[in-house]
Specification:
By secondary structure, the chain is mainly alpha-helical. Helix content is 71%, strand content 6%. The protein contains 6 helices and 2 strands. A two-stranded antiparallel ribbon has the order 1-2. Strand 1 (87-91) and strand 2 form a beta hairpin. Helix 1 (7-38) crosses helix 2 (42-53), helix 2 (42-53) crosses helix 4 (71-83) and helix 3 (60-67) crosses helix 4. The longest helix is centred in the N-terminal third of the chain and has 32 residues, at 7-38.
């Protein structure tokens, strides 16, 4: 637990901690609902999200690194997505030893259609913020991503508790 001497800051940390737990739970449950709606596993849903957020196709190793999965688990995840038509594996033109995982636009459109339906409510929420607030939120999210990846690496380096 963080020790803070300023009472107002301590109260804000406590409130932020509680809201963060609620936010993360709400996001996980929302992701589960979208995945259920599409007939996907939540991890597969997140993988598709990561694949479509990247400017270039990824390797299975890169997917494993981004998701925290082992390469074997990431391979099985890609196998499922390929079987369901969401991705294709293609040889890397720069390095023929590597295989790239590429989203299939026509199949991704199925996911995009769900976001198109849900998007207006999210846009209304974002429209309630000033540009300065959006910049702070965006920077916070970037920093949380970096910290989360560092914390995941740390946790993986520790022995499992009994």
């Amino acid at each position: 637990m963080i020790h803070v001497t300023d009472p107002r800051r301590a109260r804000l940390y406590e409130e932020l901690s509680a809201e963060s737990r609620r936010y993360l739970a709400a996001y996980a449950l929302f992701n589960q609902a979208v995945a259920d709606h599409l007939g996907l596993h939540p991890t597969d849903m997140q993988c598709l999200s990561l694949l479509t957020a990247e400017p270039e196709p990824l390797t299975v190793r890169q997917i494993a690194d981004l998701t925290g999965l082992t390469t074997g688990s990431a391979t099985r995840l890609v196998d499922r997505l390929e079987r369901d038509g969401y991705v294709v594996r293609t040889p890397d033109r720069q390095d023929r030893r590597r295989v790239l995982v590429t989203p299939v636009p026509e199949r991704i459109a199925r996911v995009t259609a769900v976001w198109d339906d849900l998007g207006p409510a999210w846009h209304a929420l974002l429209d309630s913020h000033t540009e300065d607030e959006l910049e702070v939120i965006t920077e916070h999210m970037r920093r949380v991503q970096d910290l989360s990846h560092a914390q995941m690496r740390h946790l993986r380096s520790l022995p499992k508790p009994d």
